Amino acid sequence: MAEVKGGGESTVTVLLALAVNLAIAVMKAVAGVVTGSAAMMSEAAHSVADTLTEGLLLTALRRSDRPADRRHPFGYGKERYFWSLLAAVSIFVSGAVFAFYEGFRTVFGTPEEQSSPVVGYVVLAIAFVLEGVSWSQAVRQVRREAREEGRPVLVYLRLSDDPTVKTVFLEDSAALVGLLLAFGGLGLHHLTGSSVWDGVASLAIGVLLAFAAYVLASTNRGLLIGRQADPKLVRGVWTYLRSGVPEIEEVVDLLTMAVGTDRVLLCVRVDFDDALGAADLERACVRVSAELRTRFPELDEVFIEPVPRTDPELRSRVLNRYGDAFRSGGS
């Protein structure tokens, strides 16, 4: 919950990752020039991509917190997904493409001599320690937030609507794996004298970065299109409306969409008791809307529409969208 639980900590996590990646990028670039290692140069590009990513994530955090206005009545929460999507593109273009280029050039080009491999080993070791610091911060935040939601870490990462900490966690994890790949390529080149191993390591780093970019792009694409809210929230709202509101006889339709990190738009169609008068119906809608916001702080806007449960066209649309799961309050 970015504004409540993660805004400040997410910013700290991103700033720490930015500082670490910038320092590492400079070290790797210098080591790549000194050693002539394709894998080291690929790792330098990897760190440059990560640095650009952190800059985009900071932009996302700042711009998505702007309040709603006349032109954007539901706020700017989805800006976080847009900038995070650009971050995924940055990882692919700045990191994966360059790593593939270096790998193919080394594997299929003229064999290259390796010089001063010790410099590369030292830089990789320092980079691993620094990346570990950034990764530890991301892991702490992910574990804490997953624990607060009562979910395993992997489930939390899959369902979370905050792309910033997920991006930092995934890119730092990829960075640690990439450093091991670079170390392997550098070491095998050193032991065998063949630069092919260096090129293979660079290609592996490219595959790693392409996979990370794909996962992040897929996540943010779904959120930008308009993903349903957390299933736990949907079930909670459904249960409350069916059993906690005496004026409601049946929930006919329930629509949710994430409009930002921990900001959800709710549209619900319900069949009210026919004995209610117009004034009673108005008061019930106002009261239920307020109670929903109190029970579920993530709800940003709530729209309640009275409808008859027997309307055949509406019933058909609901069943086509949700199937039998809707009858049982499923998501």
TrEMBL record:
Keyword terms, alphabetized: Membrane, Transmembrane, Transmembrane helix, Transport
One Pfam family cited in the UniProt record for this chain: Cation_efflux
GO CC entries: membrane
Transmembrane segments: 12-38, 81-101, 121-139, 168-188, 200-217
Keyword presence, S-adenosyl-L-methionine: no
GO biological process: zinc ion transport
Domain Cation efflux protein transmembrane residues, every copy: 14-224
Record localization: Membrane
Domain of life: Bacteria
Membrane topology: Multi-pass membrane protein
SUPFAM superfamilies: Cation efflux protein cytoplasmic domain-like, Cation efflux protein transmembrane domain-like
GO MF, one annotated term: monoatomic cation transmembrane transporter activity
Protein name (database record): Cation diffusion facilitator family transporter
Native organism: Saccharothrix violaceirubra
